[in-house]
Structures are given as C-alpha cells and as structure tokens.
UniProtKB/TrEMBL annotation:
Domain of life: Bacteria
Key words, A-Z: Lyase
Residues of the signal peptide: none
Descriptive protein name: 2-oxo-3-hexenedioate decarboxylase
GO MF, one example: 4-oxalocrotonate decarboxylase activity
Pfam families linked: FAA_hydrolase
EC number annotated for this UniProt entry: 4.1.1.77
Stored PANTHER family: 2-KETO-4-PENTENOATE HYDRATASE (PTHR30143:SF0), ACID HYDRATASE (PTHR30143)
Amino acid sequence: MKLDNNTLAQLAEHLESAELKAHDVTKITDEYPDMDWDDAYAIQDIIRARKEGRGNKTVGLKCGLTSYAKMKQMGVDTPVFGFVSDYMACAEGSDIRTAELIHPKVEAEICVVTKSALKGPGCHVGAVMAAIDFVIPGVEIIDSRYRDFKFDLKSVIADNTSASRFVIGGRSRRVDELDLRTLGVVLEKNGQIVAMAAGAAVMGHPAAAIAALANHLGARGQEIPAGSFIMTGGVTEAIAVQAGDSVNVRFQDLGTVAMRFA
C-alpha cells in the first residue's frame, strides 16, 4: 500500500459523501497517482465500515468489469468487486428517485444466493455451481461518483464499483433448471429494446465471476459465506436513464424486472 491510514480515511469520506449527497468529483488518482490496488480496496472497506457503523447492513456482494472485451480494453485480467447495502435495495416496479443520484445507468444482472460457503484460492465454476441455492434476476443501477463517468480502475474500486441501487424481481429458479451461459436477456427502455445479451457475456459463464470473487476474497483471508446474495456483473451494456424513464428487463425462464425513474 502506498497511502497512509489518514489519507485512506479522508478519501473514503470524500467518496461516500459524494454518493450520499449526490454530487460528482474528479477521480482520486488525479491527486494520488501512485495509489495501488490494495489502497483502492482499503478505501472501499472503510466506506463499508462507515455504512455499517451507522447501522446499514451489507446485504450482498457484486462483481463488475466482467466482460472479457472490457477487461482487455482496460488492461486487466480479473473483474472488480464491491458490495451493496440495505438502503440500495428498491422494490420491483417501484419509482427510483433520480434526485438522489448523479448520472444513473442500468445493467441487467444474473444474481444468485449461495447455500454453502465458497473460499479461494482455487475456487472454480464447478464449486460455484454446487454452492448455488437459487438464481434470481436483477437490475443494478450504477452511479459513478466521478464526473462524466470518467475514471480508472483503482478509482472505481475505491468508489465501491459505482454501487448505488438495485432491484430484484421475477422468480427464482434452481441452478440445475437453467443454462446460465445461454440464458437470454432483453432490456427495454420506454418500450424500446435497447440491449440484448446472454449469460455468457459474463466471463463466459456467470459462475466464473463468482469464482473470481471467491479467489479475490481468499487472497485477503476472507470467504463468501453461505446465504450470500451475489450480483454477477452486467449481462448487458450500461444504459443511461433519467427522470421519466421506465425500464423493463426480460430474463429467459426467470421473468421480468421493472422500475420507473422519478
């Protein structure tokens, strides 16, 4: 790590304040170009501790940058990881207040809940499939705190991978009833189809993203506990939304997730 504890704490407060007050900031690597990956995750951990210290519960884990094409573009070979808190959860079909956000975008996500713990190193797709209790469809509303959505990977990790809101809907299914690689997704905005994809868009298989998460946590002496809710990463590209928009996402064999932006 390159940054001292005081600087890490100051940056965590800076980024969380931007989230809670819905104002943008410049990416933190502009001022701290030498910060490393450990610094970035340390800032995210402090943000999580700040939220939990105020009584917010961490209700899930999330994977980002799960497209191989995007990874290659950014010069990395692993996804990035974050968390979601209880206040970020929005009911299916509800109105999401854009006044509480900066520049939101929506991504369709295949989500799972685990029935047994997963721990790296050496976690693989087979182990993940055996550990999944059920699969459920979701939509993540990402909202980078960085001005004009311009950031680098260390900055976005520190910013909790742009976590902001999420919606779970449709119906749950057992994993052995689905082919997660070919599971189709159609994202509609205001009645128009704006994105289509299949589960293989997530690292070739959504379970591969969870294995990467388990291996990431294992390197830090942590694990994915049984009963964890995990968002495996955007199946579709991120689509910008604004007040007045309605979003409807259809998941093959999993039903529909809908929301409005007010």
